[in-house]
Specification:
There is one protein chain. By secondary structure, the protein is an alpha/beta fold. It has seven helices and five strands.
Length: about 200
């Protein structure tokens, strides 16, 4: 069993090294979110299962804080309201649980981000398609080729992971990197392009 755990850790470390080529896309997403929030836009995010947890985690980092004291930022996870989810699932279909919410809420100037390990979940694909139709910018956190969802994504952060566990671990790393970028900007430590400056002094 100890050997098994050691192999899992080694696999995690090896997979984490493959994230480095994605740093340019992380920076692009950081810029997009800073511009979105600066212009009064919102982030809507969603996913299924563990990916729903990642979506909620990102929203929590932005509404609350990542590291710094700064203003709250408008982010909404679309997987947290069981009444809405079961209403849409019952009256329409589970494949529509995100798309219908996105159609109701997202507008041009907003960002809609989906987390998925496969890129093939029909409700995720439909959610991103609805975001495009609403005029929002779309972001995909996925793995490999991104599956069907990548066709509806303006920004794609695709990790090189072969298992669900490693994919979700890399998605957590990526959402923390994005949170670092936006957190520094919102606290006045960096501009929206990530150029750091001295933190503002407190009165």
């Amino acid at each position: 069993m100890r050997d098994l755990l050691a192999r899992q850790l080694a696999d995690h470390v090896e997979t984490a090294r493959t994230v480095e080529p994605l740093l340019a896309q992380v920076a692009d997403l950081g810029e997009l979110l800073c511009t979105t929030f600066d212009n009064g836009g919102r982030l809507y995010t969603f996913g299924n299962g563990g990916s729903a947890s990642d979506a909620q985690h990102l929203a929590g980092e932005l509404i609350g804080r990542y590291k710094r004291e700064r203003r709250p930022l408008p982010a909404v996870a679309l997987s947290v309201d069981p009444s809405v989810l079961t209403c849409i699932g019952n009256d329409y279909s589970f494949e529509d649980v995100f798309a219908r919410q996105v159609s109701a809420l997202a507008r041009p100037g907003d960002v809609v981000a989906a987390f998925t390990t496969s890129g093939r979940s029909p409700n995720v694909v439909r959610g991103l398609a609805a975001a495009r139709e609403a005029g929002a910018k779309t972001v995909l956190f996925a793995a490999g080729s991104g599956g069907d969802a990548v066709r509806h994504a303006d920004f794609s952060l695709l990790v090189s992971a072969l298992t669900t566990a490693r994919t979700q671990e890399m998605h957590l790393l990526l959402l923390h990197l994005v949170s670092e970028w936006v957190d520094a900007w919102a606290a006045g430590e960096a501009d929206e392009r990530g150029t750091y400056r001295a933190a503002p002094t407190r009165a």
